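Re: [help] complex structure
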Amino acid sequence: MAATVKQIWDWLEEVSDPEIPVLTVTDLGVVRDVDLIEDGALITITPTYSGCPAMNEIEENIRVVLSEKGIQNIKVKTVLSPAWTTDWMTEKGKEKLREFGIAPPEGSSSDKSVLFGKAKQVTCPHCKSTETEMISQFGSTACKSLYKCTSCLEPFDYFKCI
Amino acid sequence: MDTKLLEYTLRLGDNALILGQRLVEWCGHGPVLEQDIALSNIALDQLGQARMLLQYAAEQKGEGFTEDKLAFFRPEEEFKNALILELPNEDWGFTLARQFYFDTYNYFLYSELLKSSDENIKAIAQKAIKEISYHAQWSAEWIIRLGDGTEESHHRIQKSIDDLWEWTGELFTKDEIDLFAENDNIGPNLDVIKENWHEKVSQILEIATLKKPEAEWMQSGGKQGSHTEYLGFILAEMQSLPRMYPEANW
Ligand SMILES: [Zn+2]
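Output below.
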């Protein structure tokens, strides 16, 4: 029995991101395309950050999940263009991040005010206060910055807007 | 195969690779944890960009070439990175001064590569510019913090800014490869990058209460393959394992 494209998309929702396991690859928006090929599927993905060490693992996880579903021929292709942006993260994904204690990316990635400019106003995922300040532009992984909340005093990760 | 395009791609790739490799040395040695992580993140971005660029270069070279082969099995004179990137890290200020000069250059360069007539370079630039924007902001902030900080930090960062100055000229000096890229709209006119760079560097140094160096004599040679004695040591470390065990797998 051959799987449909829709089925494969549904299955891909079971593939989680190795660094932020509450997010699936579809929440993150790294899966660009699903195509049916002979005896299987071609999955097109796009890297988040160019040096992101999670990409190999994501590819591996996709293979594992789809082969468990009985897909025999699994091809994963990485494309650079169009470049991944945080705008591709789904609303559901952003909500999951917030619940997990990571502030989701704010606003559109086309906002270039970041360069030599002011840090963005980021809402604390714990108490919803906007009284927050950046501790470091670079956090525990390439995609995050480190912030602290001056209302509840908790530090938190912010998923950078790119 | 277009040898000039290959050469241009290698220059971009080697800049990213050698700087990334240098910065990795800071991992575990940064002054505070957050900044150690910041520099490691930047190194990782550089290595990621190097990988994409060298993949593209390998594709141009054809059968049997991979990005790993280019990184680990080329001799020194085949590396085409700018000299400033192979200099030893020295202290935190020196590393940051280099970062500031180079990130600012890279930011303006990649902003123009977004318009490249070469589809691959354009796609890589679209990816890289987002990361480079963060790097450039971070290093500029450090120059201001150190310059406008204590008396000691001010003197030390001024010295690094001065010492590194003669290594910046190479970034903007056109040779036939740069002219080829400019004429074919693959890369920008370096005069324009130079102008933008000077403007931004002057602006940040002024905020940082630092003096902009004025010396005119500049070092050159890296992008043509003539390196300082430092590159050999970087390569010896970076290449020793794959050269000893060519079939080694992660
Ligand atoms: Zn809070």
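Chain B touches chain A at residues 34-35, 37-38, 41-42, 44-49, 51-52, 107, 119, 122-124, 126-128, 130-131, 133-134, 136-138, 140, 200, 204 (CB under 8 Å).
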